[in-house]
TrEMBL record:
The EC number(s) this enzyme carries: 3.1.4.58
Enzyme class: hydrolase
Residue ranges of the motif HXTX 2: 132-135
Entry keyword set: Hydrolase, Ligase
InterPro entries: Cyclic_Pdiesterase, Phosphoesterase_HXTX, RNA_CPDase
Protein name listed in UniProt: RNA 2',3'-cyclic phosphodiesterase
Length: 192
C-alpha cells in the first residue's frame, strides 16, 4: 500500500499590496533597533487563521472544497493594523507581531473555519484566537527590547478590506518557507 502524500498547510487571509508596503516600512524601522531579528519578507505577510501542519493531500482537497461555504456565508473583513507586540512578551521577543482588529466578522470567520476543520477531522488549535501579523522571529534575547517595542505599541499601519481565504501549501527551504496557494475563496457574504 503506497504511503499517503503529506502536505504542510495553513489557511490565511492575504493582505493588499498597499498594506504590505506600509508594514514593510515599519519592519525597516524596527530592524534598526532590533538587528538580531529575522524579519519576514513583507510580500509573504498574511493573517493566519489555522495552521494545519502536515496533512494528507486528500484532506487538503476536502478542506479546499468546504471553504467555499465559508466564502458564500461570510462577508469581507475591514481590518485595522496597529500596535506592535511580541510573544511571549515585549521584553523577551521570540515573535514580533503587528496587531489586527477585524471585529466580530473576523471572529466569525475563524469560528466557521474551526467548525469545518472539526467536521473534516483536521487539527484545530484550541488556544484563544489572537489575530496578528508575524513581522519577525528571534532566538536570542535583545537588551532593551521591551523599551524599543513599547515605543511602537500604538503604531497605526492603517486599515484594509480582507476579502479572501487562501489554503496555502508551505514548502520549507534554505531561504525560508515558500507559500503556494492551493485553494482561494472570495468572501462574498452580506454584512449583517
Amino acid at each position: 500500500m503506497p504511503a499517503l502524500t503529506k502536505v504542510r498547510a495553513f489557511v490565511a487571509m492575504p493582505l493588499p499590496e498597499a498594506s504590505l508596503r506600509i508594514i514593510g516600512k515599519l519592519q525597516q524601522e524596527l530592524a534598526k533597533d532590533l538587528p538580531g531579528v529575522r524579519w519576514v519578507k513583507p510580500e509573504t505577510i498574511h493573517l493566519t487563521l489555522a495552521f494545519l501542519g502536515d496533512i494528507a493531500e486528500d484532506s487538503l482537497e476536502r478542506l479546499g472544497s468546504s471553504m467555499l461555504s465559508i466564502g458564500d456565508l461570510q462577508p469581507p473583513v475591514t481590518a485595522t493594523f496597529s500596535g506592535v507586540g511580541a510573544f511571549p512578551s515585549r521584553s523577551r521577543p521570540r515573535v514580533v507581531w503587528l496587531g489586527i482588529d477585524g471585529g466580530r466578522t473576523l471572529t466569525q470567520i475563524h469560528e466557521a473555519l474551526a467548525t469545518e476543520l472539526r467536521t473534516l477531522q483536521l487539527p484545530v488549535d484550541d488556544r484563544p484566537f489572537v489575530p496578528h501579523l508575524t513581522l519577525g522571529r528571534s532566538r536570542k534575547s535583545h537588551p532593551g527590547a521591551g523599551r524599543i517595542l513599547e515605543s511602537f505599541s500604538d503604531r497605526d499601519c492603517g486599515s484594509a478590506q480582507l476579502d479572501q481565504l487562501v489554503l496555502y501549501e508551505s514548502r520549507l527551504g534554505p531561504r525560508g518557507a515558500l507559500h503556494l496557494p492551493r485553494h482561494r475563496v472570495s468572501l462574498t457574504g452580506v454584512q449583517p
